[in-house]
Design a protein that fits this description.
By secondary structure, the protein is an alpha+beta fold. The chain has eight helices and 29 strands. 29% of the residues lie in helices and 24% in strands.
C-alpha cells in the first residue's frame, strides 16, 4: 500500500465531539466519577486521583459523560497543559472537570489510533496555549483547528493501534501484577506482625503496644536501624547527568515509587557515601507539600535505578538501614507501610503549608518482635521474591515504554509500515 493514500486532516474533521468538561458539585459519597488534570499522566488515566460529583445538584449533559476510548486533553495550567490520555473501558458513569477537554473520534477514524496520534503531539498541543506565564489555557477551537492528523486508511490505522496497544497492554498487566504483589506482601505482614495469626497457639499477653504472642518482646525501631539524612543540594547542581537524586516527587500519593520523580544531578565530592542509595534501600519522606499529609512518613522501597548509574537521597528524605542481622529492608518497608506506623508518624509532624517529620517518629516507634530470629528470616524469605518480581516488572516496563515511544513517531509518519496481509 502506498503512503500516497495517507491524507492530512484537521482534528475537527475527524471528531464527533470536542468540548470541555463540567464544573462539578463535589460529594464525599455517591455520584459520578470526575477525572481532573492529576488523573492524566503518560497516556494513562489515574482513577485514584479522581473525585465524585453529585449530578442531582448540578445537571450533567449526556454528551459530557465519557465513552469508551474518549481522549482527554489537559487544557489549563503550566507544566500540565497538553497532557493526553485515552480512556479504555468505562465501568462507571464518568466525566471530566472543566480543566480537561474531551475529544471523541467519529466513524472516519479509529479511536485508538487517534489517541496515540494526539499523545505523540502533546508538545504541539502545549504550544497552542494562550495566556500569562502564571495561567495558560487552550481553547477547544484552537485545538480543533490547529492540530493536524496524518491519516492512513482505516485498516492500517487499526494495525498501528493494535501494535502499540500490545506494548501498552503488557505494561498495564505488569502494573496490575505489581499492585497485587504489593497487597500480598502487606497482607502477609499484617497476618504475622499485627494480627499474629500464625503465633497464637502459645497464647497472647498484654503489652504496651497491645496483645502480643507470649515470649515476644517490645523493641524501639531506633535500636534496630540507622537513620541517615539526605543530601542538602543547591539548584546549580541540578543538571543533565547519568546520576540522579530521589526526592519526595518519587513518592506516589497512593503509595509506591514514581519513576518520573528523579532529578538529574552532578555529583561532587560534597556527596558522601551515606547519601548514596542502593537497590532495595528504604527511604522515608520527611517533607510534604500535600494538603492532607498524603506523603509525610511514607516509605518507599528502591526497586529500580531506571537508566541511571548512581542514586542519592535528597534532604527531604531519610534512609533507614537495618543494623540488626535479623532485620531486612523488606521487613522495614512492610513495617512502615502499615497504617499503624503512618498514624504514629503523623503525631511527629509539624508545619502548615509545608509539613516536616521529626526523625524520632522512626526511632521512637515500638514493635513486637519474636525472640527466635528464624521467624523474621522466614518472613523475609517469603516476601523478598515478591518485591524482586515487582522490580523486574518495573524494569521491563521501562524497556517496553522505550520501544513504544520509539515506534510511535515512525508508525504515525509512515516511516515504518505494517504489512496489512499479516494482520487481516
Amino acid at each position: 500500500m502506498s503512503s500516497n493514500e495517507w491524507k492530512e486532516v484537521q482534528l475537527k474533521d475527524i471528531c464527533e465531539y470536542i468540548s470541555r468538561g463540567v464544573t462539578p458539585a463535589y460529594t464525599d459519597k455517591y455520584g459520578v466519577v470526575v477525572l481532573n488534570q492529576k488523573c492524566i499522566r503518560n497516556n494513562r488515566v489515574l482513577y485514584e486521583q479522581s473525585r465524585l460529583t453529585n449530578p442531582e445538584k448540578k445537571r450533567i449533559l449526556d454528551e459530557k459523560y465519557l465513552c469508551d476510548y474518549d481522549i482527554l486533553v489537559n487544557s489549563t495550567g503550566v507544566g500540565t497543559l497538553g497532557r493526553v490520555a485515552q480512556i479504555k473501558k468505562i465501568v462507571k458513569r464518568t466525566t471530566v472537570d472543566s480543566h480537561v477537554t474531551i475529544v471523541r473520534a467519529n466513524e472516519s477514524v479509529n479511536s485508538r489510533f487517534l489517541g496515540y496520534n494526539l499523545f505523540l503531539q502533546q508538545s504541539n498541543i502545549e504550544a497552542l496555549a494562550e495566556g500569562s506565564t502564571g495561567q495558560t489555557e487552550l481553547s477547544k477551537t484552537r485545538l480543533a483547528e490547529a492540530i493536524k492528523v496524518l491519516l492512513p486508511p482505516v485498516l492500517e490505522q487499526i494495525a498501528i493501534a493494535d501494535t502499540l496497544s500490545c506494548l501498552d497492554d503488557k505494561i498495564d498487566l505488569n502494573n496490575r501484577i505489581n499492585k497485587n504483589l504489593e497487597k500480598i506482601a502487606q497482607a502477609i505482614f499484617k497476618s504475622w506482625f499485627v494480627d499474629f495469626e500464625p503465633f497464637q497457639e502459645g497464647g497472647l499477653e498484654e503489652s504496651e503496644v497491645g496483645m502480643i504472642p507470649k515470649g515476644w518482646e517490645i523493641r524501639e525501631l531506633g535500636k534496630l536501624v540507622d537513620i541517615t539524612n539526605g543530601y542538602s543540594y543547591k539548584g546549580s547542581e541540578l543538571k543533565g547527568s547519568e546520576d540522579v537524586m530521589m526526592t519526595i516527587k518519587n513518592f506516589d500519593r497512593n503509595g509506591g515509587i514514581k519513576i518520573d520523580g528523579f532529578k538529574e544531578i552532578e555529583i561532587s565530592e560534597k556527596v558522601k557515601d551515606r547519601h548514596y542509595i542502593r537497590m532495595f534501600d528504604v527511604l522515608v519522606a520527611c517533607t510534604d507539600l500535600t494538603q492532607n499529609a498524603e506523603i509525610i512518613g511514607n516509605p518507599i522501597l528502591v526497586l529500580t535505578k531506571s537508566k541511571y548509574n548512581n542514586l542519592i537521597a535528597s534532604m527531604d528524605l531519610v534512609k533507614v538501614v537495618p543494623k540488626a542481622s535479623s532485620i531486612s529492608s523488606f521487613f522495614l518497608y512492610a513495617l512502615m507501610k502499615n497504617q499503624k506506623f503512618k498514624q504514629f508518624a503523623l503525631g511527629y509532624t509539624s508545619g502548615t503549608t509545608v509539613l516536616h517529620l521529626n526523625k524520632k517518629a522512626i526511632s521512637d516507634y515500638k514493635i513486637a518482635l519474636p525472640i527466635d530470629e528464624y521467624i523474621l528470616k522466614d518472613f523475609t524469605s517469603t516476601i523478598e521474591p515478591l518485591f524482586k518480581l515487582i522490580s523486574n516488572n518495573i524494569n521491563e516496563n521501562r524497556v517496553l515504554t522505550i520501544a513504544r515511544d520509539t515506534l510511535l513517531p515512525k508508525l504515525m509518519s509512515g516511516e515504518i509500515r505494517i504489512p496489512l496481509e499479516e494482520v487481516q
